[in-house]
Amino acid sequence: MPVGTQATVKTLTPDELYQMEAGIILSNTYHLHLRPGEDLIAQAGGLHRFMSWNRGLLTDSGGFQVFSLKGLRKIDDNGVHFNSHIDGSRHYLTPEIVMEIEQKLGADIAMCFDECSPYPCSYEEAEKAVQRTSLWAYRCKNYHSRSEQALFGIIQGSIFAELRERSAREITDLNFPGYAIGGLSVGEPKAQMYEMLDNTDKWLPFDKPRYLMGVGAPEDLVEGVKRGIDMFDCVLPTRLARHGTAFTHQGKLVVRNAGCAADFSPLDDYCDCYVCKNYSRAYIRHLIKSEEMLAPRLLSYHNVYFILKLMEKMRKSLQEGKFSSFCEKFYNKYRF
C-alpha cells in the first residue's frame, strides 16, 4: 500500500496511482486529526471524496506516531495525552476517540489503537504494551459501529517470542476481519524481525489477511510473503525518491551520485514504467542537482511502480506454484 500520510502520496496524483494499478493506499489518522481535522474531512464527504481517490483506503490509528513523540506524550491505561508536533497544542486520544476519528474519515479499513514498543525495550515494557494493546483492541471493537468499515487488530510484543504469541492469541480471540503485525522495523536487526514473523505467523488464522506494518524494502517484502504476509505499507519508496535514490532489480541506485552524470540508460533496464521508457539516469541526476521538482516526481513514480510490480509478480508466482523459483531469481539479481 503506497503511503499517503497527509491524504496524498507525496508528489503523485491519483491518476498516476491508477495507472500503476494501486488498489489501496494508506493515510495517517494522527496527522489528519491534527490537520485539517476529521470534522472537515467528514463535511467533504469522507476521505475518499476529500482526496479524490475511488479505490481502497486504510487509515492507521496514529498509535505509532503518538508513541514516537517520546517526551511530548504521557500514557496510561485509558489513553494518551500528547503535544502536537505542529504547534505544541495539547491533545488526548483514547481507543474510543480514535474510533470516532477513523469512522469520520471513512476509510475501508481502520486500525485499532495500540501501543507500539520502542526498540530496544525491556521485557516488562513490552509486556505492558501488549496488555494495553489488548485492552484497547477490546474497547475499539466495542465502540466501532461503521459496518461497512473493516476494523483490524494489531499484534505487539517487540522482539519477545512469548509476548508475540500471547498478543496474537489475545487479539485473534476478539475475531477481527484482519490482523496487523506492529512494532517491527523500528530499529531491530532484520534477522530478529524475520524471527518474530516466524513466531507470529503460526498463531494467526489462515483465512484472514495479515498486514506487516511499516515495512517496504524489496527484500523485506519477499521475506514477508515467504512468511505468509499479505499486506505491507511503507514511506520508503517516496522517501528514497526525495533523496535521489531509485529501486532497481539489481538493488538501490543512488542517482544523485557522479556515476550517473553521463549515464544515458534508464533507471532500470528491466522496468517498463513511464519513467524508464522516457528518461535517462543522466537527465534525472541533472534535475536533482538543479533542484527541480520533477526529480522527486519521476523517482517517486518509478519507485512506487517498482514495488507494486514486485508484489504483482509475487502474486502471480504464488498462483502458478512458482514462488520458490521467483525468490531464487530475485536474489540472483538483487543486491542490498
Could you walk me through the main structural features you see in this protein, from its secondary elements to its overall organization?
With 336 residues, this protein is an alpha/beta fold. The chain has 2 domains: 14-234, TIM Barrel (Alpha-Beta Barrel), CATH 3.20.20; 239-333, no CATH class. Helices cover 45% and strands 14% of the residues. It has helices spanning 14-19, 29-34, 38-43, 47-50, 63-67, 95-105, 123-143, 161-172, 190-201, 218-226, 236-242, 274-278, 281-289, 294-319, 323-333; strands at 24-28, 56-60, 73-75, 80-83, 90-93, 109-111, 150-155, 179-181, 210-212, 231-232, 245-248, 251-254. The strands form 3 sheets. Strands 1-2-6-7-8-9-10 form a 7-stranded parallel beta sheet. The protein has a 3-stranded antiparallel beta sheet with strand order 3-4-5. Helix 8 links the parallel strand 7 (150-155) and strand 8. The longest helix is centred in the last third of the chain and has 26 residues, at 294-319. The two termini are 22 Å apart. The mean pLDDT is 97.
Primary descriptors:
336 residues; alpha/beta; TIM Barrel; 2 domains
Summarize the SSE layout with pairings.
Layout lengths: L13 H6 L4 E5 H6 L3 H6 L3 H4 L5 E5 L2 H5 L5 E3 L4 E4 L6 E4 L1 H11 L3 E3 L11 H21 L6 E6 L5 H12 L6 E3 L8 H12 L8 E3 L5 H9 L4 E2 L3 H7 L2 E4 L2 E4 L19 H5 L2 H9 L4 H26 L3 H11 L3
Helix pairs in contact: 6-7, 7-8, 8-9, 10-14, 11-14, 13-14, 14-15
